[in-house]
Write a structure and sequence with these properties.
Layout (H helix, E strand, L loop, with lengths): L11 H6 L18 H8 L6 H5 L4 H11 L8 H15 L5 H5 L10 H14 L1 H4 L1 E2 L2 E2 L9 H4 L2 H9 L11 E6 L4 E9 L3 E6 L4 E5 L3 E7 L16 H10 L10
Antiparallel strand pairs: 1-2, 3-4, 3-7, 4-5, 5-6
Helix pairs in contact: 2-5
Length: 256
């Protein structure tokens, strides 16, 4: 069985090639916002911008599309591509759902209104919910942040933000699975034994495969998360850590 350690996080341009984007098409100007520069740099040299508005998706659909196309490669860094996704979700989400996905619900008594605004801005600007589940919003590729304060100390949470470990923990490894009938699933590894592989896919569904039905299994243990030490102001970092430490565990309907 094929096991290659490679980057799952390239591939945004391949996704956008299918949309056909260009800033000049029909004289349409792109809205300003986080990720615009990365979007223009990586995606609009050859493609028409007007078609992205016709391809509006929910935040989950955008994320799913990104991860499905990630293995095809792109010029942008993982950080740049994350910003592109933030931009697409903020401006081209279906039914105006982009802002809801960009920031978590604010309702933590331990933080003031001003601090919650700061936290919401940090989470939106840095695209945290592209990968991580926060309250009942966000992605499933990265570790869930709900209840992280019960699993990690404040010092450990801060360290994970400013100096993330270069290697993913075993339970957080990323996997690309292709079955013998050509179906591809990308997600976070849940478990693996001699006979079976289980992953949480980009929609949050736990999927189980018998190894004989697999054509290939690619497991990535390189951590795609970069340091945010220089991207988050020193005075804001303790507020973010306090917010994350206060997040309670959230019960959601399991998908299987």
């Amino acid at each position: 069985m094929d096991r290659r350690l490679n980057g799952v996080w390239g591939g945004m341009c391949a996704l956008l090639c299918g949309l056909g984007l260009s800033t000049a098409a029909y004289g349409q100007a792109l809205p300003d916002g986080t990720g615009k520069a990365e979007f223009v740099h990586n995606c609009t040299a050859c493609h028409r911008a007007d078609m992205v508005t016709a391809a509006k998706k929910t935040p989950e659909e955008w994320k799913k599309s990104v991860f499905e196309m990630a293995s095809r490669g792109a010029d942008g860094t993982p950080e740049d591509l994350n910003k592109v996704v933030v931009y697409l979700v903020a401006h081209y989400a279906k039914d105006g759902s982009g802002q809801a996905a960009a920031t978590p619900a604010a309702g933590h008594d331990a933080l003031s209104s001003a601090e919650l605004n700061t936290v919401n801005g940090l989470i939106a600007d840095n695209g945290c919910v592209i990968c991580h589940r926060i309250e009942k919003q966000g992605g499933y590729i990265g570790p869930e942040l709900n209840g992280v304060g019960a699993r990690r100390t404040a010092v450990q949470i801060r360290e994970a933000i400013v100096h993330p470990h270069p290697t993913l923990a075993r339970e957080n490894r990323l996997a690309t699975i292709t079955t013998v009938d050509g179906k591809t699933t990308m997600g976070r590894m849940v478990s693996e034994d001699e006979h079976t592989v289980r992953v949480i896919d980009t929609s949050g569904t736990t999927v189980s495969y018998s190894k004989p039905e697999l054509r290939s299994l690619t497991v990535v243990d390189t951590n795609p998360m970069q340091s945010y030490e220089k991207r988050i102001a020193p005075e804001d970092l303790p507020v973010l850590v306090r917010y994350l430490s206060s997040l309670p565990a959230v019960e959601e309907s399991s998908k299987k």
